[in-house]
Amino acid sequence: MPAEKAHISPDSSNDKIVEVPKDPPPKDAKILEVTNADLALALSTGPPLKATSIASLQLFAILTVAFMGSVANGFDGQVMSAVNGMQQYLDYFKIDGKDAGGGVGTVTALIFGIYSIGQIVGVAVAGPVTDFFGRRGGMFTGSVIIIVGAIVITVAKTQDYLLAGRFVLGFGVSITTTAAPAYVVEMSPPQWRGRLTGLYNTFYYTGSIICTGITIGTGRMSSTTSFRAPLAIQIVPAGILSIFVWLLPESPRWLMATGETERARAILAKYHGNGDTNAPLVALQMREFEESIGLDASDKRWWDYSELVNTRNARYRTFMMLLMGFFGQWSGNGLGYFLTILFKNAGANTQERRLVLNFVNTLVSASGALLGTSLTDKVGRRTMWFWGTLMSAGMLAVVTGCTAKWGAEGSNPAGANAAIAFIFLFGWVYSFTYTPLQALYPSECLAYNTRAKGMAMYSFAVSCASFVNTYAGPIALARIKWKYYIVYIAWDIFECLMIYLFAVETKGRTLEELDEIFSDPHPVRASVSKQKVAFVEKAGERKFMSVEEA
Q1: How confident is the model at residue 30 (pLDDT cuts 50, 70, 90)?
Q2: What is the reported pLDDT for 492?
Q3: Separation of alpha carbons 449 and 19, rounded Å
Q4: What number of other Cβ atoms are within 10 A of residue 33's Cβ?
Q5: For the whole model, what pTM was predicted?
Q6: What are phi and psi of 363, to 5 degrees?
Q7: Helix runs in 380-447, H state only
Q8: By the 8 A CB rule, do 65 and 331 touch?
Q9: How far is CA 401 from CA 277, 413, 422, 459, 490, in A?
């Protein structure tokens, strides 16, 4: 039984490594199975965080403001799906789609796709803005641009104005979705990181539920208010973010990178250490910050993206980020922009019924997202990603079969309802899997020095994938209808193979400790391996020793 290195409980900044002898641990030693002993030691010996403490409640309020970035994104994601199903909108802007259940064809493809183009262009400034002005500066800049875009599309009188507003919206969302998830993952305590960062993306459905609910009522109006009112509400979450963002503490990692060590320590102590600057978890993170955050790294040079690819470690991190970017958009959720058309294909033949079904689907999906978020730190990222993607393929296969057999008008109502039910189930499974992981996983995989620029590249990947969805979707649905679903089924199966072979597990480690996983010759194997350790006290020092490889 080999000896392992052990750390004195980090109750001071003079933390050092000591050797534990090969003697077996005492019988009364506490035995744990862990993925990383340093973090386990800090959590087991330090003051436990309580979710009901004043500091924790303050942290939740702080993160809720950052969540507004996701709410704003959710507004756009669902409001256009609902508005695209309104005949008032189609008639006003002279868009084809009267007999399809919503806008289809090239014009709709451009209106949806221009948003992704705005995101792609926004990538050029999203990383540098977030690195130079801080996470708060990035969130503020993005939210102000979103407000401008929302105003333009709300008052638009021609397709040109609608396209311009959609472009501006995409540009602003690109910056916000770079800065906000980076802020959340860096502010969250390691033991809560999965749930809190997953909750960030789950707030997408807050915007979605409000939008789809409102469109049921406004859809009954004959005036342009029917679609302008839902579009205008996008201003609210961006407004909240822009007003309150400067009241938030800055990310301690960003402060550390800019040389403000004591401010970083104070923030960690307040929200991660129960107010104790010498708490083991605080000392552990500060030591890791010092080792991993470079004061002259590429995040200080707006033009330098080299650290995303200049080492094997960096390339694997970037690969994981890109996998989530493309897979998160090509697992079938691209059909979500055109749900009213899917409902029409499945036999829902009135506008009001399609809008109601759209609202119900949002509620169902939100419940899946909430459950997935609550289990992220227990189930693990890799496991959830693989099985969720496989189940998504299964749900889409059933939707395809039911729509093919009973989707035509006048067909068996029970069969059509089965197709609609499985559309709901697909949304639930997809949201359970991808909603928590889309913000969490890429943020975790990226090192601090590349996190802002890496998240900007993630936004670029998402935008490229979304552009394919939103441009090809309406054209394919107009020409081959339900047969388009088969493309996603086949792709989901391919995704499962890639996830199984390459996806690493990030649960159970601090962000800095993930470096050893990506540096390992076999990152997947290293990420899922565990060790049993015994925590012992010797000469007043708390240590750990390896007792068995699990």
Answers
A1: low
A2: 95
A3: 31
A4: 11
A5: 0.76
A6: -65, -45
A7: 381-406, 413-445
A8: no
A9: 60, 15, 10, 34, 14
Query: Tokens representing 358?
Result: 């759209």
Q: What angle do CA 485, 488, 494 make, to 5 degrees?
A: 150
How big is the CA angle at 160 (ends 338 and 151), to the nearest 5 degrees?
80
Do 204 and 430 contact (CB within 8 A), yes or no?
A: no
Rounded to whole angstroms, how far apart are CA atoms 517 and 33? 17
Least confident segment among 95-109, 158-172, 211-225, 466-480: 95-109
Measured in degrees and rounded to the nearest 5, phi and psi for residue 549 equal -80, 125
pLDDT digits (tens, 9 = 90+) for 40-82: 777 777 778 899 999 999 999 999 999 999 988 877 767 877 7
Pinpoint the alpha helices (H) of 233-350. Answer: 235-244, 252-257, 261-272, 280-292, 312-327, 339-345
| Residues 201-235 pLDDT 10s | 888 888 888 887 888 888 888 889 999 998 998 89
Residue 81 is encoded by which pair of tokens? 């799906």
Q: Under DSSP, is residue 463 helix (H, G, I), strand (E, B) or coil?
A: helix
Count the Cβ atoms, other than its own, within 10 Å of residue 481. 18
DSSP state of 533: E
| Structural element, H or E, at residue 535 | strand 531-538
Kindly report, residue by residue over 453-465, the tens digit of the pLDDT.
888 889 889 888 8
Query: What pLDDT score does 21 carry?
Result: 47
Complete DSSP assignment for 84-125:
TT-HHHHHHTT-S-TTTTS--HHHHHHHHHHHHHHHHHHHHH
With vertex at residue 115, the alpha carbon angle to CA 112 and CA 117, rounded to the nearest 5 degrees, is 115
For residue 208, give both structure tokens: 């979605």
